[in-house]
Structure formats: C-alpha cells, structure tokens
Design brief:
423 residues, mainly alpha, globular, transmembrane helix, transmembrane, MFS transporter, ATG22/LtaA_families, MFS_trans_sf
Length: 423
C-alpha cells in the first residue's frame, strides 16, 4: 500500500522546509562570514572574534537547555503548546530579519541579535518536535519524521542558492549591491522563507494530547517536573535512549559543525567548501527519506545502527585523510546518514514518550542534544593538541559512537514499552 501523509503530517513536516533555511544560511554559511567581516572592520582580531562567537553559542545553548524542560512541562497543558511555539517563532523570525539592519561594523549588536534569533529558532524546534506526537501515530512516526528532514534539506537549498548567487553576483559587480548588502538580503530572504512556509503549521497542526490545566499551572508544572526526576526509574527506557543519544549525536554534531575546519586544514578554499556543503545537503534529502522507509521495513533501532556504523567508518577513514578527494568522500558519506540518524532519533523518542507529557520529555531530548555539543569538540581539540594531528582528533570520535551504540542495545522496543509513572 502506498504511504500517504495526512494534511496534518504534511503541514507539520513543512515546518522543516521553512526553518531549515535558518540552519544553513544563519547558523552555517552566511552569518558567520558576515559577523567575522564586521568584527575585522571594527579592529577585533580573528582569534577574539571567533572566541566571542563561541561564547555567544554557549550562552544561548545554556539558556535554552535550562528553559526547555520547564517551558515544555507548562506547554503540556491544553492550548499552551502552540502559544509557546508561536512566541519563539516570532522571536526567531523577527530577530533574523533585524540582522539586516545592524551597522556593518557593530559586531556586538550582531551577536546580541543573533542570540535572540538562535533562541527563537531552537526554542520553536523544541515544541515543533513534540507536535510529532499530535500529528502522527507510533506506527507512522519514522516515515513522517524522515519526510520532514528530507524536505527540510531540499527546502534549505533553494534560499541558500538564491542567497549565494546574490552574494557572488555582487562580488563580480553584475548586480549593483555591495557584498555587505547582499549578505543582508540573505538574512531577509531567510526570514521571509521561514515565515511564508510556516503557514501550514499554524493552520493545520494543533495540540491533541494534553493535560487539563489546574488553578496553579506553573506551580503544578514544577511539581510534575520534580516528580519525573524522582521517578526516573519508571522511565528507564526513555532515559537509556537519551543517554545513548547523548553520545552518538555528539559525534554527529561535531563532525557536521567542524567540517569546514577540516576542509580548511586541507587547503580547500571557501567557495569550494560552500559547493561541498550544498552537495551534501542535496544528498542528505533523499537519504533521510530512505532511512524512514528502511526503518519501517527492518526496524528503527537496526537502521540507527546503520547510521552509527557509517559515522564510525567516517571517523576511521578520516584518520588517513590527506586530499580534497578524501574530503569529498567523507562529505558524501556524512550526507547519506546525517538526516536519517537525526530523523529516526526523533521518531524513536516520540514513540517512547507518554503523549500527554510530550513537551516535557522533548525538553529533555533537546537538553541532551544541546549539551552533547560540548564533549565532542573538546575531545577533538584535546586529542589534536596532544598528537599534533587534526585527523587523530576526528578519529577520537569513534569512542562516542561505540558508547552510544552499546547503550542503544539496552533501549526497549517502543511497541513493548509502557512507562508507568505515579500520579
């Protein structure tokens, strides 16, 4: 039988299409270069400007990690999930558009506004992820989550191509724009794309599973959160998965976030790195969808192990990497699995959580995902400095995938997992 998505499932997945423009243009490609140029124009050294950007990422990551489970617990009440999602959405799109109007040498204001944009984007994703339990069933979550990641990768390439084309044409003088204004145009394109394609999410996705609010919802939300921690043994499957996820997604995130640094060490120029990044996105889209289909046929955990195995091979192969061709091979391998492993992790977790508490538990899911981004880069940095070899730093990530894979073995099948929390 042909798999058909419902209107609600399509509308939910389309938010991946909308928000992915932010991920590639603001987080990965255009904004970091724009900020570095602004800092350089203001007389800030390259080392200091990189450090300040790192501090900014750490600050908003910490803020969101602290807020996510608290806000998520409150959002489990009837009608609250969409309100929190909308609030973060407005913050993210508004701050992204505001980046276009900051003076080109005001690097500090750029970082401040970027902090709000990042909080909005990542905060909205906490509630977006938890809506998966409202739009789909446990049996369909693999395909729906993978479809979201797949069209997200496809969708992100369109505004990315438009933005890069405007920047390159301005550099060559084909269009009467400075490079600075061309980058600002990219910020506006991102905000407009994000706004436009989020409309189906707002129109057709609604909170189905919820807890009825009482007279003191905030106080009761904190009590529920505390109760979850006290009764953690009754959610053993959930937290075993989160522990496994913490390790293997740390390796995934480190490889993705530090890929341009590896490429630069091999002498690959910025334009070539952008091309490789684009091709990786294109490859990631169909493979994310393929992972969802394979998971339905062979089992989610088994296909998660395929993704872990691919990344383990990437780390081993990276140890002997010494050419641009090697980097292309690694990039294509990463492209085959980065979307799939993230999509199946989201759906596997969504099938484990009690649906009426989905926001609370997806808050934990995002905490583990955010804090996981600390250990991998540290492991790479320490290993690289001790050995004097960047490749050895990448190779060291193997340990994260091995630990994550071992813990994943003990995570129960969602179809046989029933948490029984006390009231």
């Amino acid at each position: 039988m042909k798999f058909r998505l419902t209107k609600e499932e399509k509308s939910w997945a389309f938010y991946d299409w909308a928000n992915s423009a932010y991920s590639i243009i603001i987080t990965t490609a255009v904004f970091p270069l724009f900020y570095k140029a602004a800092a350089t124009n203001a007389g800030v050294s390259a080392t200091d400007s990189t450090a300040y950007l790192g501090y900014t990422i750490s600050i908003f990551t910490f803020i969101l990690a602290m807020l996510a489970p608290i806000l998520g617990t409150i959002a489990d009440y009837r009608g609250m999930k969409k309100k929190f999602f909308t609030g973060f959405f407005i913050l993210g799109t508004g701050a992204t558009a505001a980046l276009a109007f900051i003076p080109a040498d005001n690097w500090l204001m750029l970082l401040i506004v970027y902090t709000f944009a990042a909080l909005g984007s990542t905060g909205a994703n906490v509630f977006y992820d938890s809506f998966l339990t409202d739009v789909s069933t446990s049996e369909r979550m693999n395909r729906v989550s993978a479809f979201g990641y797949g069209i997200g990768y496809f969708g992100s390439t369109i505004p990315f191509i438009i933005s890069i084309a405007i920047i390159l044409l301005s550099q060559s003088g084909v269009i009467p724009l400075s490079v600075t204004n061309a980058s600002r145009a990219a910020f506006l394109i991102t905000a407009a794309w994000w706004l436009l394609f989020s409309v189906p999410m707002f129109r057709h996705v609604h909170q189905i599973h919820f807890i009825e609010p009482d007279q003191q919802p905030i106080i009761q939300a904190f009590k529920r959160l505390g109760n979850t921690f006290r009764e953690i043994r009754k959610y053993r499957g959930l937290f075993l998965f989160l522990l496994a996820y913490f390790f293997y997604i740390d390796g995934v995130g480190t490889i993705i976030s530090m890929s341009t640094a590896y490429g630069s060490d091999l002498g690959i120029d910025a334009n070539s790195l952008l091309i490789i990044l684009f091709v990786t996105q294109v490859i990631a889209a169909p493979f994310a969808i393929l992972y969802g289909r394979l998971a339905d046929r062979f089992g989610t955990k088994q296909i998660l192990y395929v993704g872990i195995a691919v990344y383990t091979f990437v780390c081993i192969y990276a140890y002997s990497m010494d050419s641009v061709a090697d980097f292309w091979v690694l990039a294509m391998l990463v492209g085959t699995s980065q979307g799939g492993i993230q999509a199946l992790s989201r759906s596997y977790f969504g099938r484990l959580v009690p649906k009426e508490n989905s926001n609370e538990f997806f808050g934990f899911y995002n905490i583990f995902g955010k804090f996981a981004s600390i250990m991998g880069p540290l492991l790479v940095g320490v290993t690289a400095q001790m050995t004097g070899n960047t490749n050895a730093g990448v190779f060291s990530l193997v340990i994260l995938f091995i630990i994550g894979g071992i813990i994943l073995y003990f995570v129960p099948d969602p179809s046989r997992y029933e948490p029984v929390p006390e009231n």
